[in-house]
Amino acid sequence: MKKIINDPETVVQDALRGMQAAHPDLLSVRYDPAVITRADAPVRGKVAIISGGGSGHEPLHGGFVGRGMLDAACPGAVFTSPTPDQVAAAVEATDGGAGALLLVKNYTGDVMNFEMAGELAESEVRSVVIDDDVAVQDSLYTAGRRGVGGTVLVEKIVGAAAERGADLAACEALANRVNASVRSMGLALTSCTVPHVGTPSFELAEDEMEIGIGIHGEPGRQRVPVGSAAEMVAALLDPVVADLPFAEGDRVLLFTNGMGGTPLIELYLAHGIAEAYLAERGITVERRLVGPYITSLEMQGMSLTLLKLDDELAGLWDAPVHTPALRWGV
Amino acid sequence: MKKIINDPETVVQDALRGMQAAHPDLLSVRYDPAVITRADAPVRGKVAIISGGGSGHEPLHGGFVGRGMLDAACPGAVFTSPTPDQVAAAVEATDGGAGALLLVKNYTGDVMNFEMAGELAESEVRSVVIDDDVAVQDSLYTAGRRGVGGTVLVEKIVGAAAERGADLAACEALANRVNASVRSMGLALTSCTVPHVGTPSFELAEDEMEIGIGIHGEPGRQRVPVGSAAEMVAALLDPVVADLPFAEGDRVLLFTNGMGGTPLIELYLAHGIAEAYLAERGITVERRLVGPYITSLEMQGMSLTLLKLDDELAGLWDAPVHTPALRWGV
Questions:
Q1: B201 — contact with chain A (CB < 8 Å)?
Q2: Which segments constitute the DhaK domain (chains A, B) (predicted)?
Q3: Is the pLDDT reported for residue A96 higher than 90?
Q4: pLDDT > 90? residue B93
Q5: Cβ distance B187 to B134 under 8 Å?
Q6: A69 Cβ partners below 8 Å, 6+ apart?
Q7: CB of B174 within 8 A of CB of B312?
Q8: How far is B275 from chain A (nearest CA, A)?
Q9: Together in a domain, A162 and A17
């Protein structure tokens, strides 16, 4: 195992120290339990938008904490759900008197622990479960569909609404609406190694890729020989487009995401193919995001996410955001 | 070779199509010869800041084209110098009547081809060679020191000055001053594969890392067993600090750069250690940049760059920038 770490048991704490050092103006990190909040939390009168999950998917979620996106993130151990007391501490630290919305990726442990935290909280807490991965119905750690790239878009759009003063019910409804309008699928060219495990999460042959991979290396739909970038894009977009479905005349946001170990030159190459694929089908790409935003450690691969846009969602996407990983308009 | 590509021979062109699709508001891509310019080029009365080099180091340089940074970038084939006609086309496309400054990483082919382009140009052209890598004196493709992470900082700071209206002589002097104040060194945990070569650029044993690696996989100072993150940071910062030297009381920008395949969680972890290392020596980190900004395809590893700051350089660093990879203040 080749990693830039000191001790597999302290990777998350050590990385949090670096995040705090790197972004003193944006973030405030608490270590026990581990919670990353906006530096100016709590924001009086504002709904707190909170997410979290296992570490190893950076910049998700800690890199999305800041004005216009998340009020707090709860980083679990690598590929491990955060504990209820982490989530409860995040709710307490960001309580501005307007309640909290928990954005939860659909993994059984996450759903359970966020739910327990909501029950513990003294303030009003609601949660929305994100399940945008069309690859498989049930999975290794999940009943129903997994939450993947759509999470980034939900966090940005709902974060913008909360920043503008939307109340808890409106934020909850918006999160459900975005989740209902977004679909994703990913593929892996290589595996990844969880530090405290020390061996690869799965094995792929030298000429093989996994279509429909989960962000923790959960099995997808099939293993096939590595094809061209055009074949890869079609293998992801065919099921994504068919699922919602996305149709001619639709306006979309296209999110081309890297799994962590894939170079940016390959992501841009895939993005160009995906844009051409959608143009051929009369689907208009109006917004884009390209880069490694929801990753699986050093895994090579990508995921493609489509969100059906209307003027409201496009406007909330464009709204100012000031976080370590997404920043514009400020 | 597992890559998201269609054809090893068209990787750069195909990726440029994706960049153009992803950033229609920021960039204008010309394909023959390949040049990426600001969408609003040429900017009347402004010194054009132009860089370029082999592809495979994304987001460098194309990801730094935009307001407040580069006017144009010339992407060569992967790990191959751009041709003189690419650079000449960039000079012509961005000619606002105030001359052009070429920022050239110190690799023999780059220096030669940018020089030839300067001689071809009808407008006034100067160039500054960047050579911040303290690892080795001469290298596989270089006489003297290599240009690495410091390039990102030179491009940002000189780009800000040009945007504010600095003339060609002032931009040239500033680029030389930043280059004289910046030092870097990198390490690799794994190799990388150039698409049109198809085999890894070098081999590293399962327990080995290369200290002082070049961004094209050029040999560094030594191969040693993979150590802790603290040992890695010291192996890079000891020679960087000793070289300028950086001393107690200095104000610095610390740039923790990923080589492409290293997850962000490891970069943050290393960044935290580097901040503590510098604090112990009385060196004050006033600005930070953490992420994969000058990469070597899918190589795992990192580099650390230190820039000695004063109020002028800090102010130019903070100035608004609007590019695909760096964006703030707008």
A1: no
A2: 7-328
A3: yes
A4: yes
A5: no
A6: A49, A155, A156, A159, A160, A321, A323, A326
A7: no
A8: 7
A9: yes
Stretch 126-185 of chain A: residues touching chain B, C-beta under 8 Å: none
C-alpha closest to that of B27 among A285, B294, B18: B18
Q: Is residue A3 part of a domain?
A: no
Domain membership of residue A17 (yes or no) is yes
Could you give the CA distance from residue A130 to residue A145 in angstroms, rounded to a whole number? 9
Let me know: does A51 contact A104? Beta carbons within 8 Å. Answer: yes
Q: What is the pLDDT of residues B126-183, one digit of tens each?
A: 999 999 999 999 888 889 999 999 999 999 999 999 999 999 999 999 999 999 999 9
Q: Are A90 and A169 part of one and the same domain?
A: yes
Domain end point (choices A181, A213, A246): A181
The verdict on B121 and B186 lying in the same domain is no
Domain range enclosing B127: 15-181
Confidence of residue A138 (pLDDT cuts 50, 70, 90): confident
Judging by DSSP bridges, how do beta strands B72-78 and B48-55 pair with one another?
Answer: parallel
Closest-CA residue of A relative to B21 is A272
- With beta carbons under 8 A apart, name residues in chain B contacting A300: 2, 261, 298
CA atoms within 13 A of residue B88's CA, in its CB half-sphere: 15
Tell me what pLDDT residue A87 has: 98
The total number of structural domains in chain A stands at 2
Q: Identify whether the C-beta of residue A155 lies closer than 8 Å to the C-beta of residue A63.
A: no
Using a pLDDT cut of 70, give the percent of chain B over it. Answer: 100
Neighbours of B69 (CB within 10 A): 30
What DSSP state is assigned to residue A111? H
B203 plus B307 within the same structural domain = yes
The answer to whether the beta carbons of residues A306 and B56 sit under 8 Å apart is no
DSSP-assigned letters across all residues of B125-160: EEEEEE--B-S-SSBTTBSSPPP-THHHHHHHHHHH
Question: What integer pLDDT is reported at residue B237 of this predicted model?
Answer: 98
Q: Are residues B162 and B288 in the same domain?
A: no
Domain shared by A22 and A130, yes or no: yes
DSSP string covering B72-94: EEEEEEETSPPPHHHHHHHHHHT
- Mean pLDDT estimate for chain B: 97
User: Cβ contact (<8 Å) for B58 and A265?
Assistant: yes
Q: What pLDDT score does A330 carry?
A: 85
| Mean pLDDT, residues A231-255 taken together | 98
Question: Is the model's pLDDT at B44 over the cut of 90?
Answer: yes
User: Which residues does chain B have within 8 Å of residue A4's beta carbon, measured at their own beta carbons?
Assistant: 189, 229, 232, 262, 266-267, 269-270, 302
pLDDT digits (tens, 9 = 90+) for B26-37: 999 999 999 999
Using DSSP, state whether A259 is helix, strand or coil. Answer: coil
CA distance B244 to A92: 47
pLDDT of residue A68: 98
Does one domain contain both A199 and A293?
Answer: yes
Provide the pLDDT confidence category of residue B247 given band limits of 50, 70 and 90: very high
The mean per-residue pLDDT over the stretch A184-206 comes to 96
ipTM value, please give it: 0.98
- Token couple for A229: 């970038």
| Residue A61 sits in the same domain as residue A134 | yes
Q: Which of B23, B61, B216, B271 is catalytic?
A: B216
